[in-house]
Amino acid sequence: MASKRNQSLVRVLLLIGILIGLNVLVNNVSWYGWFDLTEDRRFTLTNATKRVLSDVEDVVYVQVFVEGDLPAEYRYLRNAIQEKLNVFRAYADEPVEYEFIDPLADIPDEEKKAVVEQLVAKGLQPIPLVETSDGYSERALFPGAIINYQGKELPVTLLVVEPNLSEEQNVQKAVDMVEYNLANAIQKIMRKNRPRLAVLSGHGELPNNELTSMYSFLSNYYTVERVNLKEQLYIPPKYSAVVVPRPTKPFEESNKFKLDQYIMNGGRVLWLVENMSAHMDSLRNEDGTFIAMDYGLNLEDQLFKYGVRVNSDLVQDYNSTKIPFTLPSTGQLQLFDWVYSPVIVNMNEEHPITKDLGAVLLQFTATVDTIRTRKDKIKKTVLMSTSEYSRTMEAPIMVRMSDIKRDDRSQFTGGEKPVAVALEGTFPSAFKNRLSDKTVEMIDTIKGVSVLEKSEPTKMVVISDGDVIRNDLDPRGRNIPLGYYKYTNETFANRDLLFNAIEWLTDDYGVIEARGKGEKMRLLDKAKVQEEKLYWQLLNILLPLGLILLFGIGYTFWRRRKYAR
User: Prior bond to 396 cis, omega within 30?
Assistant: First the structure.
């Protein structure tokens, strides 16, 4: 008997030792992602995020404000954030600490306003949490976080509410973006210096007052400078990216060469180029017509070398926004559909620039073709296209105010037309074997500069509409936020498109790849829950009790039969 007791004791101690050992192993080894059997790979980080976390040199402290008595959708978001932060902990070389805070909990009503103002001043925007049938009262929710690192702090918005989407859809988009938003914020707060952007001028580009909204937004993350290309001997490599914002005057060969060699040295460019001279102001003449003519930008050969062509045409799309027009018969101002202002909803959901992007408003946009050659080493990805109900008008184009009277949709049979393309790879120089004497003379004046005929691996984005980043002005000359369309009171995703494109161009880690990840949101059917609530409550209470009772009866019956002998 003593021997059996000793054996039993050894087994128990051995089992306890194994459990302790496994617990220590699990807590000290980064298992996340190694055995991730979830369908949406929610515990597997992108390689870019892992690189960011491996470069963390100090404690990252995250204050998350999604906490408290929340509806099911927001609890799901809260848990998704916590899960992702736990995975961050496993991969980071330095600790990632976090805390979930309900900033308005246990605070007197008279002090809540001051707390809200403090959080807004830090860069967090509240959303209303409206009372529902489950008893949630109206209050402010701050769906964001503040990242603290080496004495610096950076706000992160974790949920953007789009009015045209349901609450579940908005939360789902937020869950999909958790890894990207957190990793991108950590990357930005670790930067010793902000990336610099050059916005070109010198060839009739958009004026500063129509770029104010862009400057204001990008200056939160970048150092943005206006650079006159004609006044530069070359574009210095200190600029992480260059923006070409709707030029309207021809480029001289020398200035094209400056852009080309910036690209050859690994520079990134956002081309916002349209060939046709077409503006809404031109319709204000007496007969309400104008002829759209080609600007003659002299960029066709250069862009062709890089694998893309912006055509000399204009797109008419049945899926468009409205413009105001005064009816001659009544003198009343009414809104009519305007086929030259397409609303782009046809996005490439596989690319991080346009994944989960809202509708984008364009004006007088052209089509874009991709070019393939024998020795092509450039990856070309169409980012945005018009709707299938569109058609093109070739130059020269007579634009009439009467175009507001759209034909039947069956007349728009041109199919989808690409209007934005991403390019990445090794680009050939547009000046290979064809430098002019004047350009060679200019190069000789620049010390330490050599002519490259093939680029370093780099990226470009080409959008065939410069107005996509232009902000309107109100009657007092003040800028209207980018993407806001004053005639219909709609806000389009133009700002998000611009920001995503700049992020993709300048993101050396590649964190923007995390925008391509998606996690499935598994929510209950609220109507069905209300109908079957009592049934499931009884089932969850009575079924376990019934199983225990059956087990007890069965066990008692078995013992009686066994020992009845």
Answer: yes
Q: Do both 461 and 402 map to the same domain?
A: yes
Domain count, the chain: 2
CATH number at residue 77: 3.40.30
Q: What percent of the chain has pLDDT over 90?
A: 32
pLDDT band, residue 52 (cuts 50/70/90): confident
**Which DSSP helix (H) or strand (E) runs through 432?**
none
Length of the chain: 565
Domain limits for position 115: 41-189
Task: Name 381's bridge partners.
Answer: 422
Query: What is the spatial distance between Cα 89 and Cα 61, in angstroms, rounded to a whole number?
Result: 11
Q: Which tens digit of pLDDT belongs to each residue from 349-391?
A: 889 899 888 889 999 999 999 988 767 789 999 999 999 999 9
Domain co-membership, 146 together with 227 = no
Assess whether pLDDT exceeds 70 at residue 61.
yes
Which has more pLDDT, 499 or 377? 499
Contact between residue 45 and residue 33 where contact means Cβ atoms under 8 Å apart: yes
The Cα 425–Cα 381 span in angstroms is 12
- Furthest-apart CA atoms within the chain: distance in Å: 114
Q: In what order do the strands lie in the sheet with 276-277?
A: 276-277, 289-294, 397-400
The token pair that represents 244 in the structure block:
């070409």
- DSSP assignment of 187-252: HHHH-SS--EEEEEESSSPPPGGGSHHHHHHHTTTSEEEEEEGGG-SS--TTEEEEEEE---SPPP
- Same domain? For 355 and 482 the reply is yes
Same domain membership, residue 210 and residue 316: yes
pLDDT value at residue 33: 47
Query: What angle do helix axes 72-91 and 47-54 make, rounded to 10 degrees?
Result: 60
With helix as H, strand as E and coil as C, how does 406-445 read? CCCHHHCCCCCCEEEEEEEECCECCCCCCCCHHHHHHHHC
139 and 229 in a common domain:
no
Give strand pairing partners of 242. 198, 269
What value, to the nearest 5°, has the Cα angle with vertex 191 and ends 188 and 197?
Answer: 80
Rounded Cα distance between 531 and 527, Å, is: 6
The reply to whether 257 falls in a domain is yes
